[in-house]
Design goal:
- The chain contains ten helices and 17 strands.
- It has an eight-stranded mixed β-sheet with strand order 4-1-5-7-8-9-12-13.
- β15, α6 and β16 form a beta-alpha-beta unit.
- α4 crosses α9.
- The longest helix has 14 residues.
- The termini are far apart.
- The structure holds aspartic acid (ASP).
- Aspartic acid binds next to loops.
Length: 335
């Protein structure tokens, strides 16, 4: 019988109405009591490091979770984390970097409705997650939600209310789970021969600057001393606007001169960036040789940046690690 550790952290799945809105109230043990049949197929222990709406989950909790997984790694066949959906894609990306090359599955799930409601998706999601974590073919960090299994670096919450809230971006789902049957689309366990690697540091000083038509680059000067990295969420495949004053390019110049990391990403969810396509991107890319997101999700770019900053601030080393594929996060690279 497989031995699974259920890590309960709060979220809607564990929430109750308090009179002032939903908040996490249901313990991990109670969550499990709603799916008694799951305990017939595997042995499940429960641990509850915190109980938060995932709006309040930050990189400190990501480190806590990876530390917890590391401490328990040798004693379990797999891990199932119950987590709020709002920042689940950030946590799944962060854990993909903090716990690399895991032969054991680390499954993250949650729900759009609390587990004690009759029409909830929580019982199915939790049952599916435990089933998937106990499957011999499972590995690495994945989200199991609404019948889809999504690589931890490829998930995005795209719906605020529907049960199929998460999409797999620029990558197929790893598997689907239909009527309790797991159908694998990507069955690649054992192909990555590397040993599991845990990281225990993240650099949280990352600023995301989303461009809008008319953005002012000078605002970035206020931030320069407070942050190590600037991620510019640009338009389309990527470009830096010039509204006549060249203020955004000048700001990039100042960040680079100050030894900071500047990364280009796109606000378009699907198909990724490619700054070489248009003159507005090409010129900036050529001058500063900025790393860009390509097909990585924004959540993955943010988590990966924090993870790399935990190791180095050197621009060359940063770039090398940034363009290394981890848990299926990056396929598209320039020729
Ligand atoms: N606000 C909740 C959370 O992220 C939403 C959810 O879990 O679905 O914790």
């Amino acid at each position: 019988m497989k031995h699974i550790l259920l890590i309960a952290t709060g979220g809607t799945i564990a929430s109750k109405h308090t009179g002032t809105g939903l908040s996490p109230q249901i313990s991990g043990e109670e969550l499990l009591s709603y799916i008694p049949e799951a305990q017939k197929t595997c042995q499940i222990d429960v641990i509850q490091p915190f109980s938060l709406d995932s709006t309040n989950v930050s990189w400190q909790q990501w480190l806590l979770l990876s530390e917890l997984i590391q401490k328990n790694y040798d004693f379990y066949d797999g891990f199932v984390l119950c987590h709020g959906t709002d920042t689940m894609a950030y946590t799944s990306a962060a854990l993909s970097y903090l716990v690399m090359n895991s032969k054991k599955p680390i499954i993250i799930t949650g729900a759009q409705k609390p587990i004690d409601l009759p029409d909830t998706d929580a019982r199915t999601n939790l049952t599916d997650s435990i089933r998937f974590a106990a499957d011999d073919r499972s590995h690495d960090v994945c989200i199991v939600f609404g019948g889809s299994v999504i690589a931890g670096t490829r998930a995005k919450k795209e719906k605020t209310k529907s049960y199929n809230a998460f999409s797999s971006i620029n990558y197929p789902p790893i598997a689907v789970i239909q009527d309790r049957r797991i159908i694998f689309y990507i069955d690649d366990k054992g192909q990555n021969k590397k040993e599991v690697v845990f990281s225990d540091r993240l650099g949280g000083k990352v600023f995301l600057y989303r461009l809008i038509p008319g953005s002012d680059g000078e605002i970035l000067d206020i931030l320069i001393d407070r942050y190590d990295a600037l991620i510019i969420e640009s338009f389309g495949v990527g470009g830096i606007p010039d509204y006549g004053d060249g203020s955004i390019k000048a700001a990039i110049d100042r960040w680079i001169s100050a030894g900071k990391i500047v990364i280009m990403a796109t606000q378009v969810t699907n198909e990724g960036s490619d700054m070489s396509v248009y003159e507005v991107g090409h010129a900036v890319k050529n001058i500063y040789d900025l790393p860009e997101s390509y097909d990585m999700t924004l959540e993955a770019v943010i988590a990966k940046t924090m993870w790399i900053l935990g190791k180095t601030k050197d621009r060359k080393e940063f770039r090398e690690i940034f363009y290394t594929t981890v848990n299926h996060d990056l396929l598209f690279l320039p020729e």
